[in-house]
Amino acid sequence: MPSESAAAAAAAMNSVGEACTDMKREYDQCFNRWFAEKFLKGDGSGDPCTDLFKRYQQCVQKAIKEKEIPIEGLEFMGHGKEKPESSS
Amino acid sequence: MRVWSSEHVFSHPWDTVIKAAMRKYPNPMNPCVVGVDVLERSVDAQGRLHSLRLLSTEWGLPGLVRAVLGTGRTMTYVQERSVVDPAEKRMELCSANLTLTNVVSVSERLVYTPHPENAGRTVLTQEAVITVRGIGLGSHLEGLMVNTIASNAKKEDLALPDGPSSPWRTPSDARLERQLLFHSDVFAKLLHLQGDSQKGFLDKHRFLVTFRSYC
Q1: What ipTM, to 2 d.p.?
Q2: How far is the alpha carbon of B106 from chain A, nearest alpha carbon, in Å?
Q3: For chain B, which residues lie within 8 Å of any Cβ of chain A, measuring from their own Cβ?
Q4: Residue B195 pLDDT > 80, yes or no?
Q5: How far is Cα B106 from Cα B213, in angstroms, rounded to an integer?
Q6: pTM over 0.90, yes/no
Q7: H or E element at residue B41
């Protein structure tokens, strides 16, 4: 089935959060389809992927906090951590 | 310090290039990129799509990282912001590394637009700024980057497995994705350097670096 090969093609990339990889792949599939078939053709309304994205985002936010990745200007970053200037 | 800028023409229409740019990982041209995440995404009032993505990149030589940085961590991260304007047919991406900024800071800006004379082609203009503070590092780094880009350009014709294909991803798409990688993601490419070039690069770079965002 075509969607299974497309899923296989997307399946090789992981998420920064190991637990989020399946959600990421599901969201990516939804997004890539909407992006190609709707958005680029001028129909940017009605994003069908919002629920998938919310669940995926929650998982990734948690992983980023746990790994202390210094994302700049991200709204959900609760702690205003300064970028450390360390030598070496 | 502006190090490198270039222009490249792809023999594909803009829509095709943009779709490939969104899907360019996994990519056999750079197996160091092991994760891609979307952190934010929205459509603005003008109908443009804004995205913030995180690329998780594994350092090629974990032992070397430990020796230089004194840490067991082998993952480093790149932040990529993009705006796609489907009406104007313009995609702009801005990326910068988030970690290893005490060694090097790479900031990169890419703009994809249709070729003004041929709708079947797409122009990429690209600028990368590498900021390092140290004696004689600018020219050394510049030489290293130019060599890396030149050697990548030669590999462009090598046959590589296209990976799984489908109605949504033909072998032509896969080739385009590889081509896109030749002309972008400077920091991830830097990590992909092999052996002596990488060691030489690291040995000279134990300096404080000022992170300056080009984006």
Answers
A1: 0.74
A2: 15
A3: 15, 18-19, 22-23, 25-26, 34-41, 43, 47, 49, 52, 54, 56, 68-70, 77, 79, 84, 86-87, 98-99, 101-102, 163-169, 206-208, 211, 213
A4: no
A5: 8
A6: no
A7: strand B33-43
